[in-house]
Amino acid sequence: MKIFCVGRNYALHAKELGNAVPEAPVIFMKPSTALLKDDKPFYYPEFSKGIEFECEVVLKICKNGKHIAEKFAKDYYQEIGLGIDFTARDLQSQLKEKGLPWELAKAFDNSAVLGNFVDKNTLNNLEAISFEMTKNKELIQAGNTQDVLFSFDYLIHFLSTYFTLSTGDLIYTGTPAGVGKIAIGEVYEGYLEGQKMFTCEIK
Ligand code: ZN
Description:
This protein is α+β, with helices and mostly antiparallel strands. Helix content is 15%, strand content 35%. The protein has one domain (3-201): Fumarylacetoacetate hydrolase, domain 2, CATH 3.90.850.10. It has four helices and 14 strands. The strands form three sheets. A seven-stranded mixed sheet has the order 2-1-11-5-6-8-3, with no helix packed on it. Strands 10-9-13-14 form a four-stranded antiparallel sheet, with no helix packed on it. It has a three-stranded antiparallel sheet with strand order 7-4-12. A hairpin with a 2-residue loop joins strand 13 and strand 14. Bound molecules: zinc ion (ZN). Zinc ion binds at residues 5, 7, 54, 56, 85, 172, 174-175.
């Protein structure tokens, strides 16, 4: 399976990192070894002093496809989840400065927290899904997918132009503003439409 991630998909987040709002989706990938599931804790890695959280809505691909037209994109995902794209921001800044790929900062082990999924048919409005994350029970990030620069359907169309999408592939659809550093001892909890989707303790 493949894990696609979208960078800078919310204008306010692009701004907070000092990036321009992109004209096309910014795409990167994580390997399957990046997945952290079942509410397992995240162990702070030694190679970074600046790991940041990015809470993101996750799409699970339910059908193989290539060159998917935007109007058919909804057939390719049935379940919607929530996760965290952990980012070694210190490494990423160094890599970005040198124009180098981001993998070391983005694709490391356990960098993709994955919570529960809900059936898309249980959601009121697929184009406006609210989500939030708390740190030690305090709200730290809140977003709504109506604010994305590139819709889920467009992302599926765009990705499938370059990559064959396979059942089980995941798409992390980008983080809203409000990213910040994590520290050992903190507990993160994610909610989609008010429903608890994951817990992640930093150890
Ligand atoms: Zn992200």
